[in-house]
Here is the input.
Amino acid sequence: MTNTGIPELKDEINRKAFETVEFLYNGLDNGKLTAPQFSTGLDTLFMAVSGLVDRGVIDLITAGSDYVQENKAQLIAKRALYGADGTVVVLTRQLGADSFLVEIYRAGRRVKHEVKDYTLAKQATDAMNIMTDKLLAGGYAEL
Here is the structure.
């Protein structure tokens, strides 16, 4: 900030870049962004501000990209799981939706089609992940 109390351009770019990273993280956490959308947002921000912002902002962007790479399996919106008895369970959650779809197939035929509704998109994401974990713990394998 200058002596006049007016922020310098670099300070403002740092602030806006940080706010954008925060917006992207919140969108991912709340289920409003998919992992690829989050990653694309970070990549775009990096290309726009690299060389213009402080190293700390670049580190924050890089940490987000690393997070996506390390947690890809937990961030996808569609999961297909195969049971030892030939049952296939498909869980699907649309971008930003406060619900997810459970479909169960046996011998190639759909035997169940159920929509699980929640108040918030994050609740739907969490519930879908819990259901996936329970199926995996119960002997299902991810396709």
Q: What stands out?
A: The first strand starts at residue 78 and ends at 82. Helices lie at 9-29, 35-49, 55-70, 72-75, 121-137. Strands lie at 78-82, 88-92, 99-106, 109-117, 141-142. The two ends are 54 Å apart (CA to CA).
